[in-house]
Structure formats: C-alpha cells, structure tokens
Amino acid sequence: MASEIDLRKQENARLMAENAELKARIMKLEQGSRKPQNNSSKHVINSRAGQADKKLARENAKTLKNLFYGFLIINIIYILIRIFYFYSTFTTWVAVKYFTTTGITLYLGYQLLLFGSPRYQNGILISPGNDLAAKGLTEYMFDVIHVTWCIHMLSIVWESAWWFYLIIPGYAIYKAWDVLLRPYYGANTNETPGLSKRQQKKQQRQESGTSKVKYVKH
How many domains does the chain have? Predict the structure, then answer.
C-alpha cells in the first residue's frame, strides 16, 4: 500500500515538472514572436522621426538661404542707388538711420542662423534646428527684417518712409497686449457671468426659504 502511494506521488511530481517545462517553452516562444514586432514598430517610428527631421532641416536651410540672398540684394540696391547715385542727399542723419537699421537686421539674422541651422556630423544629421516657421518670437524677428527691407527700398525715393519704422514698436506693443494682457483681461470678464450666476442661485435659495417660512405662518 505504501509503495503504491509513493509511486503515485512520484508520478504526480513528474507530471508537474513536465507541465512547468512545457509552460516555460511556451513563454519563450511567445516572447520570441513578440520581439520582432516591437523592433519593427520601433524601426517605423524612428524612420518617421528621421524623415520629419530631414524635412525640417531642408526647410530651415532654404529659409536661411533666402534670408541671406534677400539681405544681399536689398543692401546692394540701396548702396548703389541711394549712396552712390544720390550721394549729395545722403546726409549724416540718413547714414545713421540706414546703418543702425541694417545692424538690427544683421543681429536678428545671426540669431535666426544660430536658432535654425541644421547640424551635421560626418554627413549625418544630428539636429535639424528649431522650426523657423514657428509662431512667436521667430515670426516677429522675420517681420522686423522684412519691414526694414521695405523701408530701405521706399526711402530711396521717399525720405519720409523712415517714419514707417514706428510700425515695429507699435506691433510689439500690440503683440504684448494680445499675448500678455488680453488673456488676463478676458479671464476677468469671463469671471463676471460666473459670479452673477452664483449670486442668482443664492438669491433663489433665499427666496425659496422665505416663501417656505411664509407658508408655515399661514
């Protein structure tokens, strides 16, 4: 009798060991089948990210190239016509205005160059640079450069065109109002209806309470 019990225990232990081994093999097979899928998905994500970086790098390089050629063309035209051809009317005050505003465009252009230039190492793209088409400060820097160029061209034939440079600080004040002050002002105006509603609810509760009191008195 004891021998039969021992045999059954041994058989059960053997079956349990076989089941454990079988489960371990199944788990290994499942893990092996999942790994290629994860690697493939990661490869797809990385390839898409790489394509987006390359596209941004090309767009930034094109934007900076156009900015460089625009600076050359505008200033060559101004120097040839305004300084050399109309030299007699190119006064010291006009020179101060021209070189000061040109210095501003040079500074902003250099900042955009640092901000958006793609970086390569051994022919491999390391960083596409920041998006030069983004809204905000980058957009305002381009606006200042373009307004300056327009004023330079207009001032060749119309000296009063320099007054248009007041557009830049005026636009800066407008953007400061739109970005910094308008949300705060709008938040205050939006809070007023909310407070009036709460006051109305409070008033309704008070009125309902007084009506109940009057009903009890009767």
Answer: 2
| pLDDT at residue 120, as a whole number | 92
Whether residues 132 and 208 share a domain: the answer is no
Token digits of residue 45: 């994500």
**Is residue 163 domain-resident?**
no
- Among residues 101, 113, 160, 112, the alpha carbon closest in space to that of 138 is found at 112
What is the Cα–Cα distance from 154 to 16, expressed in whole angstroms?
A: 93
Give the tens place of pLDDT for each residue, 90-116. 999 999 999 999 999 999 999 999 999
Q: Cα torsion for 197, 202, 208, 209, to the nearest 10°?
A: 180
Distance between CA atoms of residues 46 and 198, nearest Å:
52
Query: Which residues face 121 on adjacent strands?
Result: 124
Specify the amino acid at residue 55.
K
Q: What is the pLDDT of residue 50?
A: 82
Does residue 134 lie within any of the structural domains?
yes
* Three-class SS state of 132: coil
* Whether residue 69 has pLDDT greater than 50: yes
Pair 71, 110: CB distance under 8 Å: no
> What would the two tokens of residue 30 be?
């499942």
